[in-house]
Amino acid sequence: MAKPTLEPTPDQTFELRGDGPYDFSRVLALSRERQEAGRVEEACNERFLACQRIEELLPDDGEVILEWNHRNSRAALELIRASAIDHFLIGDFELSAAMLELLLELDPEDHLEGTVLLAFDYIALGEYELFDEVSNDVSDKYPSKEVMTMWAAFRRTGRIPEGELARFRSRYAPYFAEFTAVEHPADERYLRDIEGERPSAAAQARELWLQTEILWTRFPDFIRALCAAASSRSGA
């Protein structure tokens, strides 16, 4: 097996080259196969080990930007993001954030939109100054931006700003309905909808809930405040 290398390109980026455990496109595909087969723990471990191998190839100093258009390098970036999600979903927000910070160092253009999850990590960790920095890079068109903005304000002050709440309720009504619902089933109807060519807004809202559910399990007061606002409005 050839020794894995980090090769510079004329575009001042680098390509991760290697085979076996350093063929990251193969590792990524294998982890997805295991995930789909229900072997979730194996898939997570495979991704985490791959991230450790990627870090070992990086120099201790000097900027390294991986070439997005290089298959193996892109797979490495996808593995880092996937492992960050794995750790987020079990509530390890610190390690998730560290992985996403590495991802953004290696891919400053943020092709995989790791900034969104990193912003949620920072709020969970109480790193509000860091949240303020990265949240500026999250588009205002994303419903997740409204959720994170409200949650950050709530964690800081104990209140959801009325303007943000009103905007969330009016501009993202399906999301407001989902985040104040009693149940959020990932049933067949939802799966058919979200996996279709044009998922409904309701399905996308449930997807965001399910992606962030660990936060509302760990920090339920925010959802209680949203539900209280919904009850207040309905009783008005």
* Average of per-residue pLDDT values: 94
Structural class: mainly alpha
Helix content: 55-70%
Tell me the total number of β-strands: 2
Strand order in space, largest sheet: 1-2
Provide the succession of SSEs.
EEHHHHHHHHHHHH
Specify the biggest β-sheet.
Answer: 2 strands, antiparallel
How large is the share of residues in beta strands?
under 5%
Uncertain stretches: none
What is the terminal separation in angstroms? 70 Å
Specify the overall morphology.
globular
What is the radius of gyration? 20 Å
Please count the helical segments: 12
Task: Describe this structure as you would to a colleague.
With 236 residues, the protein is mainly alpha-helical. Helix content is 66%, strand content 3%. The protein has twelve helices and two strands; from the N terminus they run ββαααααααααααα. It has helices at residues 24-36, 40-57, 71-89, 93-106, 114-125, 128-135, 143-157, 162-171, 173-179, 188-194, 201-218, 221-235, and strands spanning 5-8, 14-17. It has a two-stranded antiparallel sheet with strand order 1-2. A hairpin with a 5-residue loop joins strand 1 and strand 2 (14-17). Helix 1 (24-36) packs antiparallel against helix 2, helix 1 (24-36) packs parallel to helix 3 (71-89) and helix 10 (188-194) crosses helix 11 (201-218).
